[in-house]
Design brief:
Helix content is 31%, strand content 16%. It has 348 residues and is of the alpha+beta class. The chain has two domains: 10-55 and 295-329, no CATH class; 58-284, DD-peptidase/beta-lactamase superfamily (Beta-lactamase, 3-Layer(aba) Sandwich), CATH 3.40.710.10.
Length: 348
């Protein structure tokens, strides 16, 4: 295992055990998607695609920002700002108000989308209040509340924490936008108003820089001789919760702490429009795909809306020589609608 310095060490795909022909097939769909991306194995850059712009272009990674809020949550646990994932949010952030079940909501509930709170800004299909720990109800408010709580606890922006503890050590750059009122700012104990990064998204990366964080995670938080993120926390991120996302395009995938799994041992950060950073720790594998997406979520259609599900069967076969058995739920999910009738929780 090696780690990049200023640039990734490059190699041919076959040098890292890939079927080069299948990697070319992945490149063809990346071209159609007008996407930038990289494929890393054991710290070597085995393939790179720059069909969405120069390799220096930063892309809006959308809900991949949630996974970075999760990483800051892991740092807060390590720093003792939060005693455990099951600590009550209200006990540590007195201004937190998530509705009638506020007193019962834990950090784990927010980080697994199981707090039962209503959506107010995105994914507006979810309008019912539920008790915590009843269902996975995926929407932005969970992460926005978590970002506010973490900002309050640290007394500074999440981006400053992320930059100091993770981005700078791995040599990655990122831009993380500030959320809009009333979600930002948050008032600290000393009365200072602190801007709150948009915890549920609005984070911008180049493909190669996002892969650096992926490589860190694939190595269970270790970078060279430093442990930047606790290995046990990443294992917690990659422990599936017992609930399924109601949205058809996520049927068949498992969820952890703002991370998704499409196959055993394979986890990824995911964002609207098919943005992803996949890690396969057992194989020392990282793959990133990013492409341009509009703020109103209308720009990506057809081939441009390329997600990990479209790539993973090729990648799996390229590395293992075996066909990946596509789950029936994936095929059903593609045909299902995204209507309120499918998404909505009927009881509660």
């Amino acid at each position: 295992m090696i780690f990049p310095t200023k640039e990734w060490m490059r190699c041919a795909p076959e040098e890292q055990g890939f079927d080069a022909g299948l990697i070319e097939e992945i490149g063809a769909v990346m071209r159609k998607a007008e996407a930038n991306g990289v494929l890393i194995r054991n710290g070597f850059l085995a393939a790179e695609w720059n069909y969405g712009g120069p390799r220096t272009a930063q892309f809006h990674a959308m809900s991949i920002g949630k996974s970075f809020t999760s990483l800051v949550l892991g740092l807060a646990l390590e720093d003792g700002l939060i005693p455990s994932l099951d600590a009550k949010v209200k006990d540590l952030h007195p201004a937190f108000d998530g509705g009638p079940f506020t007193e019962r909501i834990t950090f784990r509930h927010l980080a697994t989308m199981t707090a039962g709170i209503k959506s107010s800004r995105h994914q507006l299909n979810y309008t019912k209040l539920l008790p915590p720990d009843v269902a996975l109800v995926y929407h932005a408010d969970h992460c926005a509340y978590l970002a506010r709580a973490l900002t309050y606890l640290y007394g500074r922006t999440l981006h400053s924490v992320l930059k100091e503890r993770i981005l700078d050590p791995v040599g990655a750059g990122a831009r993380w936008e500030i959320d809009e009122p009333p979600w930002s700012p948050v008032t600290a104990n000393d009365g200072k108003e602190i801007p709150v990064n948009t915890g549920y998204g609005a984070i911008h990366f180049t493909a190669a820089d996002l892969a650096r964080v992926g490589h860190l995670c694939a190595n269970y938080g270790a970078w060279k001789d430093r442990q930047l993120v606790a290995a046990d926390y990443l294992r917690a991120c990659w422990t599936p919760i017992p609930y399924q996302d109601l949205r058809p395009h996520k049927w068949g995938e498992k969820y952890g702490l703002y991370w998704w799994s499409c196959a055993p041992g394979v986890w990824h950060m995911a964002g609207w429009g098919g943005q992803f950073c996949m890690v396969w720790p057992e194989c020392g594998l990282v793959m990133v795909k990013l492409n341009a997406a509009s703020e109103d979520h209308t720009a990506l259609d057809g081939a441009k809306n390329l997600g990990l599900r479209d790539v993973y069967p090729l990648l799996h076969r390229s590395l293992t020589g075996k066909e990946f058995a596509v789950p029936l739920e994936w095929r059903i999910g593609r045909r299902a609608t995204g209507s309120d009738g499918v998404w909505e929780i009927k009881n509660g």
